[in-house]
Write a structure and sequence with these properties.
Length: 234
């Protein structure tokens, strides 16, 4: 080849054009293959979304997340072996940073509340999946919740019903909030005990209660919660 001829790039380094951010890697779990096929068509049509794994039940979904890099799991609620709710709890225990969306035919308040309690960040009805699912996926990856309008109404009704019945929605006691603030500010258990004039054993009990109530596992997670809740400044 003469010096005037352009050289070709090596085969081991393929040329890339207009490389953007990697697409969101999605696991799709539903026990009906036809449903999975239709939902996959909706998702794979978007350049920033890619279904990289499918599962026919909740147990398969758990196995897929164990062996693959998944960013977002889209789960049906009613599945064999493990339901979507059971699978959500297991998936988040395995990979806490995973986002989970429920895709279901059930416009049901009980399922909605159970899904949110299990850790799902969104609840999408199959009947309007072509309208809502793409938006829900992108919202989940921004750490934003997604609920269809009827679900929002259900949450508001639930809150108002509890308020009318005089139920206290405050999750933490004032003392627990004091302990949480001091933990998040970096104080040791002994210094917290001294500042609040309580025993070291009582501080440890409050910390254990905080972790249990908030579903958290360590001091760092408590600090992050306190920042999100506005108890301390970042």
């Amino acid at each position: 080849m003469s010096a005037s001829e352009p050289s070709e790039p090596p085969e081991s380094v393929p040329a890339r054009s207009d490389a953007g951010p990697a697409p969101i890697r999605i696991l799709l779990a539903d026990d009906h293959a036809l449903v999975r096929r239709g939902v996959r068509l909706i998702l794979d049509h978007e350049p920033d979304l890619r279904v990289v794994a499918e599962a026919g039940d909740g147990a398969e979904a758990v196995e897929e997340v164990r062996r693959r890099e998944i960013d977002l799991a889209v789960l049906d609620i009613a599945m064999p072996r493990l339901t979507g709710l059971q699978a959500t709890r297991e998936l988040l225990a395995i990979r806490p940073g995973l986002r989970v969306l429920m895709l279901t035919m059930h416009d049901n308040e009980q399922y909605l509340f159970q899904a949110l309690k299990a850790g799902a960040c969104g609840y999408v009805l199959k009947s309007v999946a072509d309208r809502d699912l793409i938006t829900a996926c992108r919202a989940a990856m921004r750490d934003e919740p997604f609920l269809y309008p009827g679900a929002v109404s259900a949450l508001i009704r639930h809150y108002l019903d509890r308020a009318r019945q005089g139920e206290d929605d405050q999750l933490l006691t004032p003392r627990e909030e004091e302990v949480l603030k001091l933990v998040a500010e970096g104080h040791s258990s002994k210094s917290i005990a001294d500042m609040l004039f309580i025993s070291l054993k009582t501080v440890h009990r409050h910390r254990a209660n905080l972790l249990h109530k908030l579903g958290l596992h360590d001091r760092l997670a408590l600090t992050r919660y306190a920042i999100r809740a506005g108890i301390v400044e970042p």
